[in-house]
Design brief:
Layout (H helix, E strand, L loop, with lengths): L1 E7 L2 E10 L4 H9 L7 E12 L1 H13 L4 E4 L3 H10 L6 E2 L1
Helix pairs in contact: 1-2
């Protein structure tokens, strides 16, 4: 997976490209942990996300907690959105 970062001051957008699975979830975790403490809002742009595993879903939950709920998933592909809805994460994480 590739992650493109767009820093907008207190908001950061990370564009996810490829598969978010057991192999790549630690990469997202590292990116989130490396965010400056001044960042109060995080957007994960899922336009290029092709696949998500349970490890990827766990990373979404961990990121949501780290950001104190200030997490938005943007441009989520339909197949991945179905999985997110099945898990009930759409009731917690903002989806645009």
């Amino acid at each position: 997976m590739t992650i493109e970062k767009n820093d907008q001051g207190t908001t950061v957008e990370l564009k996810l490209i490829g598969w978010l699975d057991t192999q790549s979830a630690p990469t997202l975790e590292e990116e989130v942990n490396a965010l400056d403490s001044s960042v109060t809002s995080l957007i994960l742009d899922c336009t290029g996300l092709e696949y998500i595993s349970s490890a990827g879903l766990r990373q979404f939950v961990a990121t949501y907690k780290k950001m104190n709920g200030n997490l938005t998933l943007r441009n989520v592909p339909e197949e991945i959105l179905k999985i997110i809805k099945m898990t009930g994460l759409d009731s917690r994480i903002r989806i645009e």
